[in-house]
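Hi everyone, sorry if this is the wrong subforum. Our group has a chain we'd like a structural model of before ordering constructs, and none of us has done structure prediction before. Sequence below.
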Amino acid sequence: MIHGIGIDIVKNERIRRAAEAWGKRFLSRIFTESELAYCYRRRDPYPSLAARFAAKEAFVKAMGGRASLRWTDIEISNDRAGKPTVHPHNNLIRLLAEYSLQQVHISMSHEKEYSIACVVIERAAERPEARAAE
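Answer:
Right subforum, don't worry. Here is the predicted structure as tokens:
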């Protein structure tokens, strides 16, 4: 059962400007050390950073705008095949359990000036007997 869907688009230059203006203060507030290590292995890290920023924004939208999350609670990484995945930290672990959220699907892309991400979050299907008891 779908819990929520979120999408976001970010101009890569916006992330570049923020990183240059605020440096480590900005980067460590938004990204985990693993995300930064992955992105800075790239020739140009900013499209990858922007795609992860868009994925985090899309994730929050798919959650329904839950304010109790920090950016670093949502870690975006890639599995061995390159598929993006979410590694939850801190409050996100609690929220996923609280709302019976089981699966997160992410798609990210970047092209020249923009990066985009879409997130679909699934929750456990309610059992018919649980609904009948209400």
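For your construct planning: The beta strands are 2-11, 74-78, 84-88, 101-111, 114-123. The longest strand covers residues 101-111.
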